[in-house]
Every structure is written in structure tokens, then in C-alpha cells.
Amino acid sequence: MKYCLIIFVFIFTLNISNLIAASNQDLYKKLDIFGDVFDLIKKNYVEEVDDEKVIEYAINGMLQSLDPHSGYMDAEIYVEMKEETKGEFGGLGIEVTMENGYVKVISPIDDTPAAKAGMRPGDYITHINGEGILGKSLQDAVEKLRGPVGSKIEITVVRLGEEDPLIISIKRAIITVQAVKYRTEGNIGYIRLISFSEQANKGIKDAIKNLNKDIGINNLRGFILDLRSNPGGLLDQSTKVTNNFLNSGEIVSIKGRDKKDISRFSASRGDLTDGKPIIVLINEGSASASEIVAGALQDHKRAIVIGSQSYGKGSVQTIFPLNDSSAIRMTTALYYTPSGDSIHEVGISPDIEVESTWDLENETDNQLEYALNLLSEEIKID
Known about the structure:
The protein is built from 9 helices and 19 strands. The longest helix is centred in the first third of the chain and has 43 residues. The protein has 382 residues and is α+β, with helices and mostly antiparallel strands.
């Protein structure tokens, strides 16, 4: 019996080794086919091709097949991406993704050409300067959206509720994003967090400090944190921003391929708002880092979340620099709210749903008005 067991284990191990070898052999065959296809393109395509571009498109296609948030960045786009996280870059001022073959606007950034031209979260871009983009990669579309500062671009969008496509003309500009804006609304502190760039946490801390001073801690009734149309940004900034409103507790957890490998981020310092009531405003343009903040404050019952369902980008992208100064952006993990929920492709549900009614003529903001009225009633967050 002992020898039979040894023979069985040997045969089982041998079979596993053969399967692995066969699998590797199949993979090498596919790589050979890739080389054959590339060679056929070079020799037979109707026009001469740029070899480097063809390879780049192949790499990008490989990443885009995984999910719309992964992709390839050539050296120029990689430099621009790093500038964006610092808060200054050239372009239109929109965060986009790919959906159903079209470029979907996650959010226009406040005070940028795209926002001033009237682009909205949820707009689908179908044409750029009259050229259809159905079937093109997200990188192709983004490259067409970019251009010299001061040049104009016409974008055709399909918008929910509009029968006909809209043509929006935008002039490209150098965009300097002020991460945080704030003001007093009577005895309520209003803080607008525009993006999670490197200035986000400092901007929030300064806003809370100055609003406490301007209104007076004893007179200040509460805060409104406006995360509407905030497309996200740096993960570390989202945890630092949330830290300013909590005394303790988990902010977010991140799980990669190995579900046992969990990174947890917890609050580690005092609540700078001294426990004052907080209302968080979100909409369909609130994504990623915005959802981390809203989800954590909601789960800890530290804030009431008002508005509409957020975008639902609960994935973490890691940048991997390559040897030729280019880089790839690849999804490496999903993040989870303190309650253990993943909001990926789901979003944060507001505690109180208040759909935005667009009134460009009177420039009214019904969601903000609702939040101000609620705080004026001296709400209590349990």
C-alpha cells in the first residue's frame, strides 16, 4: 500500500508538471502568432505603419481588455498625468472613461473650459471635430481631445433627456485646479473639494481652520462638504481628508488578488470640526477618492450623504513605469468601505436622495439649498 501511494503521488506530480509545460507551450505559441501578425501587418497593410505605434496600440489593447481603467501611457501622456496630480495641466478639464464603445464623461472639473462650456457628468462623447470615435481606444480619444493651448475643439455629445446630439465648442487652456474652495453660508461652513490632487488635504485643513475663525466655533452650526463632480485622484489624499473629520475608526480597506492581503487605513488624529454636523453632497460625477470619503463618513454615521448615486469606481490603479519613460496604469486592487462593502460599479447611495434640477438661467442649486435648510434645522447625526 505504501509503494502504491508513492507511485500515485509520483504520477500525479508528473501529470501536473506536464499540464504546466503544455500550458506554457500554448502561451509561447500565442506569442509566436503575435509576432507573425505584426510581421504580416508590416509587409501587407495598405499603408506604411509606424512600428512603435502598432506595438503601443497592442499593449494598450491588452490592458483595455481587462477593464476601462487600465491602459498604456506613452512618455508624453505619462508626464501629463504626473502634472495633473500636482494640480496643473493643459487640456479641457474633464475626467473620462470608456463605456459601450463611447467616451463617457465622469466629471468636468470646476472652473475649467469643459465645465464653463456646459459639459456634464454622464455625457457620451460620440464625435471629436466631426470624426466618430466609436471603436477607437480610450487612449486614441484622449489624444484627440488634447491639443495646443488656445486651440478650439468641437465635441459632439449625447445627453440623457436630450433628443438630439449637442455640439459643444471648447477652447483648450492651461488648467490650474484649485483643489479646495470654501465660503460661509450664514453660520454654516461650505467646503467644495474639487479634486484629490496633492493640495487637497492642506486645502481642507485650511478651510476648516478659517471657517472656524470667520464664523466662530460657538456660532458655527455645521459643515457642508461638496464632493459633487469630483472625479477623485490620489488615494493617500482621500484618507488624509477623511482623517480630518474622524477621531478614530477604519477609513478604507484595500484588497488585491490575494484576498488575504488586506491594507487598512484608519483615522489617527482628532476631528478638526469638533464634532459639528456634516453633510456630504455627491452626484453621478463623484468617483473614486470621493467615494472613499463619502463612504467612510456615512458608515461611521459622521455625516449625512445627500444627492444622487455616485459613479462607482471602487478600483485602485497602480502606475508601473517602463524602461522607455512610458508607463502602464493597471488595476491592482479594489477598495472597501468600513462596513466591508465594495462600491465598484455600484456607487455610494445617498442617505437622502435629492436629484439635481438644472437651472442655468437662475443658477440655482437645489441640492445645496436642501443641505443648507437641513443644517439650519440643527440636525443631529446619531
